[in-house]
Design goal:
The protein is about 35% helix and about 20% strand. The chain is of the alpha+beta class. The chain binds thymidine-5'-triphosphate and magnesium ion.
């Protein structure tokens, strides 16, 4: 439930007719800071430049925590996010280990976003170190805009970021990761076959470890191989909504708009489990996760000064089928206890016979601000 990790795309998004035709009907950017926590630490400790840096827990290499991130010097040794600290020490004993300091990362996060909205006001905040931008209405050439954004972020924070620019969010997100760190990657519709299709399917945001494992077992490895699959065949293996979404995604089709704060219609948090959980047998674990999601959603609502009246729960089962249940309250709320109680009520109406792999809570129907 890392706030930095984007929620999988809304599988109900309609097809984008523009994606197949003209180049750049829309111009969407995804910007993601490079090795964010480690880079923030380095910015205030310039004497550490050039050294491998590992940020995690209390910064104690003996601790049992996990790595939150490592800079690119440390990544050369195989260290990565979510790796147990003990393993990171074995791989890179000479690294500098530092504790996490969320307050400082949030401060720098606000700084880089403020610099971006000066240039590109249509910004969707996707977490501590990433945003989507809609650059369609800008006059400047794409590369000029990309470089201007990178320069503004550097000026405001001293840090580098990577930017992908493409006709939609899905492709922009993949693009921003292709030339990390300090990348600027522009993908046009006609580049789909050469730049996107050779990549492994898991590079698509929304194809997680489980789906990617299942695709591999079915003999589908790359995004191109997925794009070539019959939609009906995908539906037979992954269910109606996820199967159809897989087909659209692999073909570079995604119509989701960039949603700025003022037009936000709902706020959600979701989590995919390490192992599938049964709604009845694993109820205690699920209840804990629901409570945690309710706490996170309530915190997000407070942060954005929003109160909603409709609380919903979303689950995805082991066959990838999505079910949602919601209820509307008599009053607008941002209270954790109210959201948790409503979420439990919604969850009780979810089918109980199949194991689940994803759970989410969504609050919508906001009070007019
Ligand atoms: P990411 O953008 O995924 O990673 P990153 O910025 O460190 O590196 P890069 O983008 O260059 O690949 O995540 C942003 C921050 O979120 C990261 O600096 C630390 C935190 N984080 C965690 O706490 N746990 C995780 O598992 C991940 C992936 C990130
Ligand atoms: Mg990042």
């Amino acid at each position: 439930m890392n706030p930095a990790l984007p929620a999988p795309p809304d599988t109900a998004a309609p097809a984008d007719p523009s994606a197949a035709g003209s180049e750049f009907a829309r111009r969407i950017a995804h910007l993601d800071m490079d090795a964010f926590y480690a880079s923030v630490e380095l910015a205030r400790r310039p004497e550490l430049a050039g050294q491998p840096i590992i940020v995690g827990g209390r910064g104690d290499p003996e601790s049992r925590g996990v790595v939150t991130t490592a800079n690119y010097e440390a990544r050369k040794f195989g260290v990565h996010s979510a790796m147990p600290m003990a393993k990171a020490v074995r791989l890179c004993p000479q690294a500098v280990f530092l504790p996490v300091d969320f307050a400082e990362y949030r401060r720098v996060s606000r700084l880089f976003k403020a610099a971006i909205v000066e240039i590109a006001p249509v910004m969707e905040d996707r977490g501590i170190d990433e945003v989507y931008l809609d650059l369609t209405e800008h006059e400047e050439p794409t590369r000029v805009l990309g470089l201007a954004l990178k320069a503004a972020v550097k000026e405001a924070t001293g840090l580098s970021c990577s930017i992908g620019i493409a006709p939609n969010k899905l492709l922009a997100k993949i693009a921003s990761d292709l030339e990390k760190p300090n990348g600027l990657t522009i993908i046009r519709t006609q580049d789909l076959a050469t730049r996107i299709w050779p990549l492994p399917a898991r590079k698509v945001n929304g194809i997680g470890p489980k789906a990617s494992e299942k695709l591999t077992a079915l003999g589908v490895n790359t995004i191109g191989e997925l794009a070539a699959c019959e939609p009906g065949w995908l539906v037979s293996h992954f269910g109606k909504s996820y199967g159809a979404w897989l087909h659209r995604a692999a073909n570079g089709i995604d119509a989701r708009p960039v949603e700025t704060e003022s037009e936000r219609k709902s706020l959600s948090r979701e989590t995919t489990f390490a192992t599938d959980l049964h709604p009845v047998r694993d109820w205690q674990a699920l209840a804990r996760l629901l409570a945690e999601l309710a706490r996170e959603v309530a915190a997000d609502l407070a942060k954005h000064r929003l109160r909603g009246r409709t609380i919903g729960v979303k689950v995805r089962n082991d066959q990838f089928a999505i079910t949602t249940r919601d209820l509307s309250l008599p009053e607008f709320t941002d209270r954790e206890s109210v959201i948790r109680k409503a979420a439990f009520e919604c969850f009780a109406r979810v089918p109980q016979h199949r194991k689940l792999r994803l759970l989410g809570i969504r609050v919508s129907n906001f009070e007019a601000g």
